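Replying to the earlier thread about multi-chain prediction with a worked example.

Input:
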Amino acid sequence: MQEHGIRPTANRMLVIQALEDAPHPLSLAELEDRLVTLDKSSIFRTLTLFREKHLVHAIENGNNTLVYELCLSHNHDSDDDTHVHFFCEHCQTTFCLTDTTIPPVGLPEGFQMHTSNYLIKGLCPDCQQKIRR
Amino acid sequence: MQEHGIRPTANRMLVIQALEDAPHPLSLAELEDRLVTLDKSSIFRTLTLFREKHLVHAIENGNNTLVYELCLSHNHDSDDDTHVHFFCEHCQTTFCLTDTTIPPVGLPEGFQMHTSNYLIKGLCPDCQQKIRR
DNA sequence: GCATATTTGCAACCGAGTTGCAGAAACTAT
DNA sequence: ATAGTTTCTGCAACTCGGTTGCAAATATGC
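Result:
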């Protein structure tokens, strides 16, 4: 499974597992309390390794925190994170709008694009219900 | 000038001035070393106030840092930051692509948008020259 | 089985952002 | 102008996410 040049240790399996189980991308802190047996630094290093190997990618959730998401296509070169993300300002959850592809834009002369990130902030369906003002 | 409900103190003028003079949005740290006479917390509080009053807005530069930019239209309600930003991974500078408007996308049922943010990372013209590999 | 390389936990650190507090400055009403 | 009140500011300390050095634990190669 993770023979993208990564040794499958028990800890690493756990991290993958946690990311797979979650319905949305997780922050380091969220991973920490789902994986109480692991140290913060181990989780961090695992995530860093996975990012290098293009097994997960990180996105800024608009709250000065990174959230980590499994890459769908485990493609070595291209980052396949091409969908829009949504951050709920109330419950602080980041959602993947997997069906919504980031619309490409043209760049001014001389700029060279590497990755792009489209983040919408607002209220998720649940929180809209709850707040109902 | 700043009668958007803000008292124009000397410090606040300096902050505005610094933002106006810069060719691109500045981080808190960058403001700190441009405004050595002011304390970090004062700059921070000023920025916070300005954000509330829609005089400046903050964007995450893709590097876990906020950068602050003057609002073009000092419009109380709508946030006018509708252009795409570009972050150079080499010189760590954030550019406003003022001519490039964020293309709107549809949201799944139930999500309510508040603001959106489109950030492209890569190399700026200058750094591309410098690196030239 | 032993030497070497990799992984892990702990503790400590970093840097951006944030806050409590008390003094300074400004504003208000006499 | 002056006393009382509010606002602003600097200092220091703190939070929290992220990051690193190091030594012990584990795995790997021979």
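Chain A has a mean pLDDT of 89.

Feel free to reuse this layout for your own posts.
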